[in-house]
Specification:
The chain is mostly beta strands. It has two domains: 99 residues, TolB, C-terminal domain (Neuraminidase), CATH 2.120.10; 215 residues, Neuraminidase (6 Propeller), CATH 2.120.10.30. The chain contains one helix and 25 strands. The strands form six sheets. It has a five-stranded mixed beta sheet with strand order 6-7-8-9-13, with no helix packed on it. A four-stranded antiparallel beta sheet has the order 1-25-24-23, with no helix packed on it. It is globular, with a radius of gyration of 18 Å.
Length: 316
C-alpha cells in the first residue's frame, strides 16, 4: 500500500520527544467541566471550547493568553432556542478574526456558528448551518468551512457500517439547513466505520498548502484530501491506518506534521509528512480529545477531566 505506516515504539518515541521534560497539567476554571476544541486566535492566544456535557455549567469559550498563565472564561454561548443549551466542540478562526464553532446538539439540532468581535468581546452570533446530526470538527480554508459529522445515520448501508461525512459551507452562508443524507450538496467526502465504536469522521486539519486531513475515530485511520478549485474534494488518499486506536481531534504544525489525540489509546500521536506514526506522549491524559500546537508545545484537551495537558515537541 502507498505510504506504508511504521508505528514507532511508544517508550522510545516518548523518551526522544520529551528529552527529560514532564507533561504539564493546566487546571481549567470551575466553569469548565470538560474541555474539547482548541484553536489559536489571531492575537496568538490559546482558545478552548467547553461543551460542559453534564449541563451543570453552560457551554462556553475560554482563553489562555500566555503559557504559564491561568485559563479564564471568555464568553458563554447563547443556548439553542429549542434545547436550552449550547455544546461547543470543534472551533477555528477565520482571516478576519471571526470564530467558527460546532455546536454539538442531539436530535439533529446541531449548529455551525460564527462569532464576530468588537473590543475583544462577542458582538454578533450568526448561524452558518443548522439541523446538523453531529457537528464535530471545523476548519477554515479559502473562504470555505470544512466540518465533520461523526455519524450520518439517515444514510443506509446494507453492511451495517456507520456512515459519516465531511461537509463544506461557504463562510458567507447563513441558516443553511441540512438533511444529513446523501442528497446534501454540502457533503463533499464520506467514510464509513466498521468497528464497534460507532463514531466516524471526527477531527479535521488543514496544512499550509491547503491540504485537508480528516480522521475516522472508530476505525483508526487518517485521510489526506485535496480540494479542487471549487472547494470540493478532487482526490483522496489513505494517509495513516496503523498505530491508532481512536484518533479524535487533529492539528498541523509549521513543518507539516499532523498530530492527533488518540482518546481510547490515551496518547498524543504525531504523523509525519510520509505518514509515519509515532507517540509524542502517552498515559498522561484523561481521555484526550483535541490537540493544538501553540508556542512550541503541544496542548491537549483532557475531555474526561477539567484540565489541559501540555507536552514539549520535537517539531522536525
Amino acid at each position: 500500500m502507498k505510504n506504508m505506516v511504521r508505528f514507532v515504539c511508544a517508550a522510545a518515541a516518548a523518551a526522544m520527544t520529551f528529552a527529560g521534560e514532564a507533561a504539564v497539567k493546566i487546571q481549567m476554571p470551575a466553569a469548565c467541566t470538560n474541555p474539547d476544541g482548541l484553536a489559536v486566535d489571531p492575537q496568538d492566544r490559546l482558545v478552548i471550547a467547553a461543551p460542559n456535557n453534564a449541563r451543570t455549567q453552560p457551554g462556553a469559550i475560554f482563553r489562555l493568553d500566555e503559557p504559564g498563565g491561568a485559563p479564564y472564561l471568555w464568553f458563554v454561548l447563547p443556548p439553542h432556542p429549542e434545547t436550552g443549551y449550547a455544546a461547543p466542540m470543534g472551533i477555528c478562526f477565520g482571516p478576519e478574526g471571526e470564530l467558527y464553532i460546532c455546536d454539538n446538539q442531539k436530535d439533529s439540532k446541531g449548529r455551525l456558528l460564527r462569532v464576530t468581535f468588537k473590543d475583544d468581546k462577542p458582538a454578533a452570533f450568526d448561524t452558518i448551518a443548522c439541523g446538523l446530526e453531529n457537528a464535530n470538527g471545523v476548519k477554515y480554508l479559502n473562504g470555505r468551512l470544512y466540518m465533520t459529522q461523526a455519524f450520518l445515520r439517515k444514510i443506509p448501508r446494507e453492511d451495517g457500517h456507520l456512515p459519516s461525512g465531511l461537509y463544506m459551507f461557504s463562510a458567507a452562508d447563513r441558516n443553511v439547513r441540512v438533511t444529513n443524507t446523501a442528497s446534501d450538496p454540502q457533503l463533499v467526502f464520506a467514510d464509513h466505520t466498521a468497528g464497534k465504536v460507532r463514531v466516524g469522521l471526527n477531527g479535521v486539519a488543514v496544512d499550509a498548502k491547503g491540504t485537508l486531513y480528516v480522521d475516522n475515530y472508530g476505525d483508526g485511520r487518517v485521510w489526506k484530501l485535496t480540494p479542487g478549485a471549487d472547494g470540493r474534494i478532487a482526490s483522496c488518499e489513505l494517509f495513516a491506518w496503523q498505530g491508532m486506536v481512536s484518533p479524535d481531534g487533529l492539528c498541523v504544525d509549521a513543518a507539516g506534521n499532523v498530530y492527533t489525540a488518540d482518546m481510547h489509546g490515551g496518547a498524543a500521536l504525531k504523523i509525519d509528512r510520509s505518514g509515519i506514526v509515532s507517540v509524542v506522549a502517552k498515559d498522561c491524559f484523561v481521555r484526550p480529545s483535541e490537540p493544538c500546537v501553540w508556542r512550541g508545545r503541544l496542548y491537549v484537551a483532557d475531555y474526561g477531566a477539567t484540565t489541559l495537558t501540555s507536552v514539549p515537541l520535537d517539531m522536525r
